[in-house]
Every structure is written in structure tokens, then in C-alpha cells.
């Protein structure tokens, strides 16, 4: 199945470069481009892409506001694409807010071409693109910025998990990949994936990125813990 993609970035050369790279893939079709968030929303609602590559910092409307509009559309708009945020810095202040808004992850603009192609495929498949280094940074940001933590409701929801599922959630939140979790728990990687799927379903979470945020806000993990 062909993955439909639009590219939203205020730099024309970036859009052209990404479009050329992705269009060269047999399973990816670039169906639109936009120079800012506002036009990105319009293009998305017209073309119905599977994945939106969204720059974080743009004029008119930034990527965070545009991502929120796409992921929480008004009544009558049923299409919700996956959003992959593009940023120049891995410590971008918007990373947390973008993930909280429902973005499926983020990618550095200077990432190798193969990483961009893989990221589009991963996100299109419904997975979150959240590297362990990003997970650790995300958790550190909670402590640094003093984010509000509403633990009571989330703590109650944690009780619905089995001990193994809770353990898997904690390891996700500490930045371990599926392979690392499998090695740590002496499980097959497919078994780990099954546990993660059950955790997301029980907690009503969309993907791995939201699982990290939930684990911190529930008090399951803490910065530096």
C-alpha cells in the first residue's frame, strides 16, 4: 500500500529535497507541500495524507499549533493523519508539547536520508518514532520545567496492568528499545511488542510517545530515578 505524505516546512529547499527523496521510494507518494502550518492544514484536509512531515518553527502558524489542529480536528472533519515533527535541534522546546498533542514522534532535519524514509514508514504503520535519547530528554524536561503532574487518575489506571505490563511500561519510559527490553526481561522481542500493545490498549494510549508521558505523570517513573 502506498504511503501518502505531505511536507510542511517554510524552507523551499528542504521541501524539495525531502520530496525528491521520498518520491523515489516505490511505496511513498508525496501528495502535497506547504510553507507554513496554516496552509499545511488546508493541504492535509484536501489530500488526506497518511503522514504529515511538520516543521516545528514556521511563520504564520507554527508546527505545534498545526499538529494540534490536525490531531484534534473540529466536528465534521474525520481525517486524522499521523504527524512526524521535524526539528533542527534535538532539545527543541516544542518536543514535549508536540508529543502531548498527539504527534507520533520527531526527526532531526539533518538525519541520514535512510532515517527519514524509515521514519515515514514506521509512523505510517502506527508506531511512534521516539529514540531512547529523546525519551531520556523528555523525562528530564519534566523535572527542569516543573510540569504539572496529575497522578491520582493515572495511578488508578495503572492498577489495570499486570505486573509484567507495568514492568514493560517502566522500561519504555526509561528509554529502552524493544530489543533492549527483551534482553532485560529475557523475552522474545515479539512478546515485548505484544505486552506494549496491551499496555496501550488498557491505558487508552495512542503510541509509545504517550506511554512515556503517562508513565511519568502517573508517578511510575521520575527524572533521575
Task: Give an overview of the whole structure.
There is one protein chain. With 225 residues, this protein is an alpha/beta fold. Helices cover 52% and strands 12% of the residues. The protein has eleven helices and five strands. Helix 3 (63-71) links the parallel strand 3 (51-55) and strand 4. Helix 2 runs parallel beside helix 3 (63-71) and helix 9 (178-185) crosses helix 10 (189-203).
**Separation of termini?**
43 Å
Radius of gyration computed on alpha carbons = 18 Å
Query: What about the largest sheet?
Result: 5 strands, parallel
Q: Which residues sit in consecutive blocks of at least 5 with pLDDT less than 50?
A: none
**Largest sheet, order of strands side by side?**
2-1-3-4-5
Taken in chain order, the helices and strands follow as EHEHEHEHEHHHHHHH
Quote the average pLDDT: 83
Helix content: 40-55%
Helical segment count: 11
Strand content: 5-15%
